Amino acid sequence: MYDAVPSSFVAVLCIFASVLGLANLLFFRLFCRKQTQISLSPMRAFRDWTLPRSMTLGLFVMLIISLVMELAQSPFAEGFGVTANVLLAIPLFLQGISVVDFFIVRAQKNVTLVRTLTYVGLGVLYQFVLYPLVLVGCFDQIFRLRDRMRGMPPRAAA
User: Fold this and answer.
1) What is the secondary structure of 69-89 as a DSSP string?
2) 24: number of Cβ within 10 Å
3) Transmembrane ranges (predicted)?
4) Segments making up each domain of the chain, as ranges
């Protein structure tokens, strides 16, 4: 018999690839900023970040395939399921954080202090807020909460 690769190794590879991709994007933008011949459009504020709508169908199909493989008791279901969950959870978690940031900025009261305390709290309570933020990101992706909220004026500060 041979030992299989632990399923958590796949998740670590996905997270490492995501961090490496983000670093590549930021270094590329830094390089292009210093070159006068290349012009890039400015990045949107983090509170306005969303997954591209074209990704939604692909992520949903990947999740359905994962569930079908699990029900069919495929030998590769566990590894594929972990990979699908990580590839689905990371972008939706970031979208959930951007929704929280949107509401922090919308509140218009002590934005810097509230933002700092919120991010420190998210870091400390990461284990407990991971899935709720994934759900918030999922609801925002499906129902476009922020787009609907943009039409409404913010509450008056009392």
Assistant:
1) HHHTT-TTHHHHHHHHHHHHH
2) 10
3) 6-31, 51-72, 84-105, 117-143
4) 45-150
